[in-house]
Amino acid sequence: MPSAEGSRGQKGWKLGSGSPPPLGPGRERPERGRAGPRCQDPQADSSISPLPHLESKIQQTHSLARLLTKYAEQLLQEYVQHQGDPFGLPGFSPPRLPVADLSAPAPGHAGLPVPERLRLDEAALAALPPLLDVVRRRQAELNPRALRLLRRLEDAARQARALGAAVEAVLAALGAETRGPRPEPAAAAMAAATATAGVFPAKVLGLRVCGLYREWVSRTEADLGQLAPGGPA
């Protein structure tokens, strides 16, 4: 029995290493033990599929978008609370002021292919941080004691950047074509506009930016849900 096992060990060792087997039977088992992991590593590496990694990336990004959707709703509520009347009053409908470089998701957004939707999501998320920074600076002048609101606005800008980068990574993992360099956002123009505008228009513009942040984060969550395991087909 021992000699048969040694013979089988020599054959396995020879195929894996491409070298002659050890001469002495006493050295045969240690050499086979050391050679085994070396001959198995390349095969194990080649069998790794990128699919679980992609699914994990999508799932993590979707979870982040879901969490930020909740935070965006809290930010919008906090913003309204600090603007005074008529903000927050029943029936108050502020004008939907245009925002440079950013608009709400188009009505046909949900009908686009998922990669194209994610490209639009990522572009909107890239435009939001400087706009949120402008709103935070203006609110620091109008509501300097609203520290939690100012902190939420600062966090929102950072979180939008993080979510945008995660969506971009998902697009790259999917093999989707990436866009070229984007022009610098027109946050400076918005900052100048809010600085010269009256208090009420500045508040309305800030409300609009916070609303767009919520819309795009929520839209991103829904679009990633199309790719997440267990999501709609």
Word description of this protein:
- Its main location: secreted.
- The chain has helices at 2-17, 28-46, 51-81, 114-142, 147-174, 187-196, 199-225.
- Helix 3 (51-81) packs antiparallel against helix 5.
- The protein starts with a helix and ends in an 8-residue tail after the last helix.
- The protein has 233 residues and is mostly helical.
- The chain contains seven helices and no strands.
In terms of DSSP E residues, the strand content is under 5%
Q: How many β-strand runs?
A: 0
Taking pLDDT < 50 over at least 5 consecutive residues as the criterion, the unreliable ranges are 4-20, 30-49
How far apart are the termini? Answer: 58 Å
In percent, how helical is the residue content?
55-70%
Oligomer type: single chain
Mean pLDDT over all positions: 80
How many DSSP helices?
7
Summarize the main sheet.
none
Spatial shape:
elongated
The secondary structure category is mainly alpha
Cα Rg: 29 Å
Question: What is the string of helix and strand elements?
Answer: HHHHHHH
Function: Induces cardiac myocyte hypertrophy in vitro. Binds to and activates the ILST/gp130 receptor.
Main location: secreted
Subcellular location: Secreted
Protein name: Cardiotrophin-1
